[in-house]
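Before the break, one more example. Copy the sequence into your notebook; we will annotate it together after we see the structure.
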Amino acid sequence: MNHRLAFLVSVLLMSSPGMAKEMSIPGSAEVADRVSQASELPAYVSLEKEVLAALRKSLQGTAPALTRDNLEKATQSSTQADTAWLKASGYDFQTAALQKQGIQLLSGFSDLPEVTLKASLQTVIIINQDATESLRRQALMDAEGISYLWFLSDALGPRLGRAFMTAYGKGELSKAAALIKASEVSTGAAKKYFRYERPFLVQGSGIYLVPDNTVVKDLHPYSADGGSFPSGHTSTGVTDATLLAQMLPERYEALMVRGARYGYSRVVLGVHYPLDIMGSRMVALSNLTHYLNDPNYRRLFNEARDQLRSALEKECGVPLADCARSDAKDDPWHDPDMRDFYRYTLTWDLPKQDVAKSGIKVPPGAEVLLESALPHVSAAKRRELLQKTALPAGYPLSGSTPEQQFWQRVDPVAAYVAGKK
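Here is what the structure looks like once it is written out:
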């Protein structure tokens, strides 16, 4: 696979010396930058700075200063996450079985044509090389904050976001914090199976390794170990954001997009391909559908959700629906362009393959992804929404099985918006 990638990049560079200027990434960077400290909304920028400060404080812990060694030991504190409560429940997360299922779900990766791999590599190079300083700083925050839930604050809006940060720091969301993090299924087994080289390791790619001037602030170039496909960080971002969206349906759309934005950061840093982001989203949503349809998991989920909602309402001092509501002038996640951005990250406009036109089959239980967001819509109608708003067939990783087709093509944000109408 390494030789194949080296060949692809050599062809790419010889045939397209000015590719970063010739190939257009339709507005993705501009939209992504609106949810970084480059935002033109002062209230949002202020919140982002508070998120960074809280992250750095968590990483430093009781150490006299924040150093790179702190990153290796980063984990939620016993105050932030009630792991004892979760352990006492005895719940089996069936990690090994879900990892095996995930590899099968992504098996279409091994059959992708070279034109698709080349386009995926081109996209990384363009986004990485052309990234603004604010996009890079946001990407570093996302990368180094993987062990915590701070990154979710900005998608909640200035008012609820601050309430979330306060409650999280005080341990008032400890059950939700423990459950959400425990629900992340490692992509390690899939990485070992597919053994795909990361883009910054491809000789001649010109990937820029971003120096850390944001979190540790030691200017150490950010990189990553292990295989590239699928992305572990993206799986974390999608899992965490989706579960919080189930607990806080008042911010469903923004949180779902936040998971996609987290994956985008991995491409900005040049450590993952679009295909890695696409594959991780597929697996994460499939895993969460499994969990949310498990009555034993739902008991834990409901207990954690109730604690979280009660704590946030207390911190807000007003009904949660009011606290979650924010003016567009303070909240870039209200921008309708974020829906298009989400849709873009499902395909990255990679080449489609010619396939016979066929309908999409919704797996049993998938409608649970819309249950809390559309509580007055029947299960049958939610399944219909997922079916009608799905991507066209033929994009990479859609494979040949009904499950592969669905999890690559499903667009929960579009389904939610259609359901709200």
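The chain has one domain: 2-357. The chain has 21 helices and no strands. Try to locate both features in your own notes.
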